[in-house]
Structure formats: structure tokens, C-alpha cells
Amino acid sequence: MRPIDLRSDTLTRPTPAMRRAMAEAEVGDDVYGEDPTVNRLEALAAEMLGLESALFLPTGTMANQVALLLHLPRGAEVVVPEGAHLYEYELGAPALLAGALVRPVPAPYGVPDLEALQGALRPGPFQAPTGLLALENTHNLAGGTVVPLEVQEAFLRLAQAHRLPTHLDGARLFNAATFLGVEAARLARGFTTVTVSLSKGLGAPVGSLLLLPKALLPEARRYRKLLGGGWRQAGVLAAAGLLALTEGPKHLERDHALARTLAQGLLRLGLEVDPQAVQTNMVYARVKDPQGFLARLRAQGVLAGAVGGRVRFVTHRDLRDEEIPEALRRVEAALQAKAP
After folding, report:
1. DSSP-derived secondary structure for 118-167
2. pTM of structure
3. Are residues 89 and 148 in the same domain?
4. Domain CATH for 296
5. What is the mean pLDDT of each run of 10 residues along the chain (340 residues)?
6. What is the DSSP letter of 337?
7. What residue numbers bound the domain in which 302 lies?
8. Are 199 and 149 members of one domain?
């Protein structure tokens, strides 16, 4: 029985075209800024997203942490929507690396409450001062949800009024753009720095980008090196990243459609799914015993992940259309099976 892997959109394999591009990539030493393929990737990303420059990094976590190091004096706060990746899944790196505090604010469906955001700002001198406002789009823990354009604009106006820099954790920014029917540059506009993952949904085997002003690029390259991210002939990876940027977004609407089909099927089977949260390529289902349910799913050949009291299913480009109905049949069998 062929497993149906719905754990993450990071599980995609490089396409044959990516493998050819990687094998044939023109390379140089990127620490010296001499890898032509990396340079092309960074230039293309900056052009596509409307920022002055870009930096290619191994991971999204490293890209986010470089951004914090650029923006924050030690002891300052970054304000984030509750459940943000920066707060939940970067292993305390803001405190450990940047000496930063993270202050979450309420964010139903991943959309920050602007009144709460305003109230979270700290000018000092008797509290840790606010140094950065950060947004996540799409918001993973909220269900892969998208921040409405009008909320993003209000967020940016608030930051401007308080003369604060802004960071957008846009690991799945192209998913958000696809959902809203706009160019990704529209969602990046106005932010001081932006991160985008090439390996989440877009199909690259590894890598993220940090978009930033040109004046910050030398310091960003220094921080990347400091964190162990100075790589050499990285063009073999950047070649896949170029195809991820140019070809990957075309597949995302299908991923979203598969997620909607999956969500509807899970609802029919009696699982607790919030349809309002199913906006992009994720489906969260609340179950009483997530680990037990995952074990029964594995026995039926379906792989998913547990997040708190929920099970997360993620659709991606490597899935065949017929695998969603088949996955639902296997979920039904898992629901009927006794716990092992």
C-alpha cells in the first residue's frame, strides 16, 4: 500500500527539471558573492517581491533570526500575532540570539487584533521597548490562514505612526497571494524585511530568502555567516530555487483545492474541522486522542502531524488528485478501527 503523506508541503521532491538545473548549475563561492546562480536567484526574488535586495539562506528560521538581529537592540520586544512561528517554533532563538523578547497579541484566525496591537506597544524607559512589529502570512497554527489586505495596511500604518520597522514572516507568502488573487509583491509592499520559503509549497529541496533594503544587506550577510549559514558553491541549490520561484506558484491553487476537498470529506466523516480556517493548503481537525488517531492513520497508510489537540493535514504538489479520495477512505477506516 502506497503511503499518502499529508504531514507537510516540505516533503516534496525536486522535479526532473530541478534535478537537471541543479546538475548543470553555474557555481562560484557565495561567501565571496561569486556564485552567479545564487546572484540570479537573489536578483529575481528582489524584483518579484518589490524590495531592493535579497539574501539566500538555508532555512526560514535563520532568515527570521537574521531579520531580528538587523532590527532589534538587545532587550527590545518584537510584537507578533499569537501562535506565530517566531514565538512557537524557533526554539527560543529570539532570546538566545538577538536578546529579544517576543510579545504575542490576540490574533483570531491569525489576524492580529489591531487594538490589542496598539496596546502592546511599549515606549520605555521602564519597560522593554517595542523595537519591531512582525506579521505572519499565511499563519500556520491558525490553519494556513491569510491576513486581509485592509488589516495589513492598518498594521503598516500603525508601525509607521510609531516609527517602527516591520517584518513579514512570509514562509508561505505565495499561498497567501494565490488565495487573495494578487501578486506576492502586493503583500510584501511596505515591510522593512520579508522572508519567503522556497521549500514550503514551491517545491525546492532547501532554502529561504530574506528580502531587505540594500543598506542592510552587508550586515545581513555578516549575520548569516555568524549563524553558520555562509555557504560556498550554493548555486546547485539556488538553481532549484529559481524554478521554485518561477514555476512553484502555478501549483498552489490546486493545492488549495485539494485541501478544500479534504476538509469537506473530513467533515462528512464527523471530524471537527473549521471550514473558515481552510483557506490555503492546510486542514486542522480536532480529535480527542491525536497520537492514537495518528497511529491508526499510519496503519492505514496515511501520514499526518499532531499540533496540540489537533491533527494537521497539508496538501502539496506531489499528491495525485486521486489520493485525496483514497486518503478519505483510509481516514474512515482509521476512525472505525480500534486503538492499537
Report:
1. HHH----SSSPPEEEEEEESSBTTTTSB---HHHHHHHHHHHHHTT--EE
2. 0.96
3. yes
4. 3.90.1150.10
5. 95 96 97 97 98 98 98 97 96 96 97 96 90 98 97 98 98 98 98 98 97 98 97 97 98 98 97 97 95 96 93 97 97 81
6. S
7. 4-10+251-336
8. yes
